[in-house]
Input
Amino acid sequence: MCYGKKRGIDIEYFTTGLVGVARNEQEMQDLRKKWEWAQSLGQKVEWLTLGDLREVEPMLSESLLGGIYIPGDHQVNSFKVTKAFSLGAKMREMLSRSQKGRFDRRWSDARRGRI
Output
């Protein structure tokens, strides 16, 4: 179960895929490293030529050198994730405070010989 759903918040977790593009040789080298890294993790990743990129998105610049496509990449709504984490932290703090109070009372009773 997704963390946000545990907190009652839909964080809009979707499998959308990711396209990375390179405008120059340095970016091509960086993409090659990402491509190799993703493959080493067993992810499906495709190397795209400019022609491949423009088939996917015809409005992309003709000056691009190439790119990669990771179809299994996921996205979330970052604002909702932050809200879910914040709510989780508040709930944990409330739980911690309530448990601390119980411990403090028990320790006090034990010191007085009541337990």
Observations:
- The domain at 12-76 is CATH 3.30.9.10 (D-Amino Acid Oxidase; Chain A, domain 2).
